[in-house]
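User: Assemble these into one structure.

Assistant: Restating your components, then the assembled model:
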Amino acid sequence: MTAFLTIIIVIFIAVAIWQMVKIFDLAQVGASNDQIATDKDNKINGYLMMGFLVFIYAITIASFWYLGDLPLMSNSASEHGPQLDNLMIISMVIIFIVQTFTQFLLHYFAYKYKGEKGRKALFYADNNTLEAIWTFIPVIVLAGLIIYGLFTWTSIMNIDESEDPLVVELYAQQFNWKARYAGDDNVLGMANVRLIDNDRANILGLDESDPNAQDDVITTELHLPVGRPVLFKMRSQDVLHSAYMPHFRAQMNCVPGMITQFGFTPTVTTADMRKNPDIIEKVENINAIRTKNRKEIEAKGTQEVIYEFDYLLLCNKICGKSHYNMQMKIIVETQEEYDAWIKEQKTFKNSLTNN
Amino acid sequence: MSAHADTHAHDDHGHHHKETFVTKYIFSQDHKMIAKQYLITGTIMGVIGVLMSIMFRMQIAWPEEPNVLFEALLGKWAPEGVMDADIYLALVTIHGTIMVFFVLTAGLSGTFSNLLIPLQIGARDMASGFLNMVSYWLFFLSSVVMIISLFVEAGPAAAGWTIYPPLSALPMAQGGSGMGMTLWLVSMAIFIASSLLGSLNYIVTVINLRTKGMSMTRLPLTIWAFFVTAIIGVVSFPVLLSAALLLIMDRSFGTSFFLSDIFIQGEVLHYQGGSPVLFEHLFWFLGHPEVYIVLLPALGITSEIIATNSRKPIFGYRAMVMSILAIAFLSTIVWGHHMFISGMNPFLGSVFTFTTLLIAIPSAVKAFNYITTLWKGNLQMNPAMLFSIGLVSTFITGGLTGIILGDSALDINVHDTYFVVAHFHLVMGISALYGMFAGIYHWFPKMFGRMLNKNLGYLHFWVTAICAYGVFFPMHFIGMAGLPRRYYTNSNFPLFDDTANANVVITIFAIVGGIFQLVFLWNFFYSIFYGKKTVQNPWRSNTLEWTAPIEHMHGNWPGEIPHVHRWAYDYSKPGHDEDFVPQNVPLYDGEEELQH
């Protein structure tokens, strides 16, 4: 209903403005009516160009003011996170300097040199020095960014297996996630979707004869011990999915028919992150909004009204109807907590049903 | 190598006085009429595409709220006015497809390449009028098939405009991947055939049919842009065609090019050995150049309009040509930046980061050259000029964030979030749309012999400009909050509740911006019939199209084709009384031509 009312109002505004233009047109009778910009048009639009520059700056400031809480630029929870955030901040600073400067020149020139009858423009077709300057400045800046970026990328994507990472499989299907831990031997058993046998509860298609598979553990929540490198092996059983873990600055597609991988080291436990002042503020802000919408949330009945911070794994590659609700909770905890949790889980061998 | 095509072309078009309604308005082989056909078809598709975007924006802002608009337009897909999740994805998919291909490729390139190439190089018509006609009608056919696909039982294609398999290949994965996707693929195959015929024609025409004196270094930048665009199209569109054909085979004939090891709805499928990543490579080998197929014509149009309305030569003509060529070349070796996290070898990620960030250099040169062209000009603020300045503004704003997305390390974080949506809409969507509007305002007199109302033009520009920033600027920030794109609703993630208000604001800007396009449509269709009659050269421009008579005729010029004696940018040249010197005016005694 709100939407409908909005549309009606907007239509009325449009009609009103159109009528005003008509009146303006009629008032111009007798004046030159060849539909080519006159000095007056140049002047008005020149001033509007300056106005528009102010608008661009204003919307920039407003966006920072209202939406400036950017989780992807601060409070990362993985070892490589701060490195990546630094690069992001450097890039953003460069972008905002260039943006502010060039938009100013563009709109200021549009205002300053607005046309007047009888004035002649400067015949100025070329200047190699100038062009060399604005070719080489971007070259130098970009060379810096490229080199920094490539080092960061290589260090993120290079997985050092000698550090004995915890091996975890992320398994995607329409529309949920599963995690498979490699068990005591830290080696994932062989698996293929052709071996899926729902009658025996072999839901991920593990090779039942593979000794490495016997101690594997399949869960619907992802628990990670803090400070230990994790190596994720990703699989999908049906369509493309993408395992997006924004707080850890991690993402990799899950591709049917192949195994992809991504590794990182979580550095902050869920409990510690909940005590982070930035996160507390964000959560309070969200809860203020949720309390206001209490009725609607309760009517739906699928969520608690009060939100508590948790790390999340989201699907970030369009995968079908319920793509928008394909998520898994991630819990980062101390090694002891993790050990206690994993001990409670059933191993693959024990989870099979025999019929 | 100026070709003397005039006598030859004249023979071809010597017998045109017995035109019937059908040969003049429907199966016309005249490039000016074909341009208008492209423009009108593109405009209609544009209205559909924009309407779709407004509908899914409403769903994002007011998730799962009943809406009369949905009820009226979506029928069974909006039971009791609540949009279905499948149709949401379909709207997103078809919006993307229509805007990228049907509006900004065919509507933009098809209209202005057809209109301007023969007129600006001094040719009687395209090299092959017949192929040109076939090209338009194939485009029309593909549009019809795409529209028909909206009405199939299980819904239109809904796998995103990138139609990654397996989602697009398996009807059991998604309703839209049945008949809807089949029609989508058929439509695109026809579209590609149309685009190839058009592009070949543009290339041949520019190479062979330039009038006497029109050397490559005297070509207006519009023609350079259209020419290079056509080359990119010929190089990359066939690859998409092959991807589409292979996908059709996977879908219908049991091959496994893109599919392997799939278990869906309780059964294992027979596919073995294929890879979706291969499809991504093939798709983006077109998909990325496609960005420049959309953008370069808009930049070419802008170059022409900024120079004309600044009453100044375009600054750095040679650098502009070089940067068009550099962008075209680089555009074919950067496709992997869409695939940093697709599972391809990370080393490839490094390579594509390098090539991608290189594109920023010619782009920066272009932006600075536009700004310098304004400097000390005598700016005539016609609506076309406003849209051109607007294009430079959105090109800068949108282009700068490419530095983040092109960097493989940073892409990990913002890949497929709203940050990407904001980036590409500004840099290629809005910019190219502005280029198209600028072209329409500028060449409307050439097309229809009448002027568009300028006050409505101003109104159209300022509201559109504010709304475009209002929609896409805050969207960057939502993306940096981690919000993924293509989510039917965000309400399953309390984490994103603090972006809900921003989404409402964005949607309101989108609705207002969308509605104000009606101002343009009204102006456009009203002025075709009742607009103020134009003079021959209303913008006092140098290029050859303005030396042709206002009334359209087959063959463009009565009598001889004008000869060219100078480049297209002798504006405010010292030693001339007027502030423009058309290209067909010979150098006076002792006048020096600028050397390029």
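The radius of gyration of chain B is 24 Å.
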